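Lab notebook page, bench 4
Experiment: in silico fold of construct C2
Operator: M.H.
Input chain length: 196 residues
Purpose: comparison with the prior construct
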Amino acid sequence: MTTIAVLGNGRVGGALARALADAGHEVTVADRSSAAPAAAGARVVVNATPGAGSLDRLTALRGQLRGKVLVDVSNATTDGPDGLPNDLLHPGSSLGELLQEALPDTHVVKTLNTMLYPVMTAPASLDQAPTAFLSGEDAQAKQVVRGLLADLGWRAEWVTDLGGIRTARATEAAILFVPHVIRSAGFRPFAVSIVH
């Protein structure tokens, strides 16, 4: 059992919080006003806040996040007129990298950001096996995240460690697929999958 604070109470945060609680973890869902005490009392913090504002929100929690594992599932984008992602907010970098730079005493692990949110907590619901990627500098933090992914239904062979946090540039860029896939196939759960 891990104490987990989920920052963000929208569809993504709510789904992750429910699934992690169902797996036996002690989960707190925090909005902007309760983020600081929730983060301070948790071992693992999940960033499910809108990516465009994540850097400012989490930098303000530097003290509460010291020594914690920060699981970043957000993508920082600008949106088009239809509300779907249109472009990357941090071209040439990534939200994951900027969070790690701003929070040097926190172990940032990027994951679950290459799929529509229903897949995060139900990976076996797709017709083919999806891939969850890991990007981060700390091996122990990645092991913690692997354990949480397993609790969400992710089989070990569906998880690919890409390396350091700089590799989050690649997975965050995958968000640019999303609007085109939705326009083509409708709002149906999908994920990026690496097939060998």
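Observations: The longest strand covers residues 3-7. The first helix runs from residue 11 to 22.
Next step: discuss at group meeting.
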